[in-house]
Fold this sequence. Notes:
Strand content: 5-15%
Radius of gyration: 27 Å
Distance between the termini: 45 Å
Helix content: 40-55%
Order of helices and strands: HHHHHHHHEEHHHEEHEEEEHEEEHEEE
Number of strands: 14
Largest sheet: 3 strands, mixed
Number of domains: 4
Shape: globular
Amino acid sequence: xxxxxxxxxIDEIRALEVEKSALAARQARLTVAFxxxxxxxxCHLGIxxxxxxxxxxxxxxxxxxxxxxxGNRLVGLAKALVTEMPHTLAAVETGQLNEWRATLLVRxxxxxxxxxxxxxxxxxxxxxxxxxxxxxxxxxxAARAAAxxxxxxxVTQRAAHAATERHVSxxxxxxxxxxxxxxxxxxxxxxVHAALTRHADTLRSGGDERARxxxxxxxxxxxxxxxxxxxxxxxxxxxxxxxxxxxxxSEPARIPGYGVxxxxxARDALTQTxxxxxxxxxxxxxxxAQDQGNGARTTGGGTTGGDTTPGGTNPGSDALNVWVRRxxxxxxxxxxxxxxSRARLFPAPLRRFIQARxxxxxxxxxxxxxxxxxxxxxxxxxxxxxxxxxxxxCEACNHTKETPGWSVKPRPGPxxxxxxxxxxxxxxxxxxxxxxxAPPLPGTSQPEHLARAS
Length: 454
């Protein structure tokens, strides 16, 4: 009986997987239909040819609960499958191929002409058995080999162009860790890894008790920043309540752009005397206090957010400068007190407020770093340079909101002390609305109706 139940469960799991793939194929067809409809409407509105298609990926992303960057990739995937790779699309519809492996096939044939891509699609059709039981690496290898046989020059040119896309990125990891990722040409990447490995092996043979991976990580930080532990004149912000900072409260702190960190870790970061590795570090931390800009106050007592900035120290000095700035918030909701300005550009203190309040791009589902401090109601339309009329956006989302048919406005809340946190309403060309509420600062509760996006 147990064996029969197990078989039934596996059969249902498989059936659901097939259904998921079929739904993904249906989404691809609908995405292409929507993209074509939007392009026709944009042509009718007189949008220049080089701007046709703007905002389409963002609308798909909002509908699917994804970031705008992924929305553009989903549109590209859908167009490739529907218009150039019908066999792959059919395999997804029947559950022979899932959406991710179809994405790999599309990615590895991106440099080919439409005719060559269709030829690869026909060669690798599941009926041939080429991809039966193949994992991700095998799928990529098969697609690359097929692409190279048809157009070796384009594949070579693509590899040469890839070097221009080298970059370094940072993303959060659990337990106050992060992933520092470098996309490098293979020769450079191998050389960096080999140098770190050789040095770690040398230290290990000399009696260093750290694991090889720990030594490599510590060396990477020290070689890049020039100091053990990486503490330099670079600004690192911590936002926490006064209770967490001075009274040992357990309310978590927040690092803008990273996320929540434990209270104890945040306090230790301000007074840490030991660096990573073999006890190397900086001590003698000095604290200074400074009010934030306009000296605003809230009624009923406000939450204080400490914004700590390790200042620029001399290379030979062991002193770590810590600045504490007070951010006053409304009780209960954590709404930052507004700071108004008649200037068109947001002054530095107000930009700091926006950065502290919004944390990352305010477009729903977008976690990109804030690059633009945007007027929600445009300045040329009478919008004020104020905290209420400001939103932190990434560059791509700021350009998207300027596309015809898009609109953004502050979403009014009840005029009382416990009013909603700063909320904006984003409306797309199809008339769909999405709401974004500023995330809660440390020390404030987050009722369900105050979710980041609704």
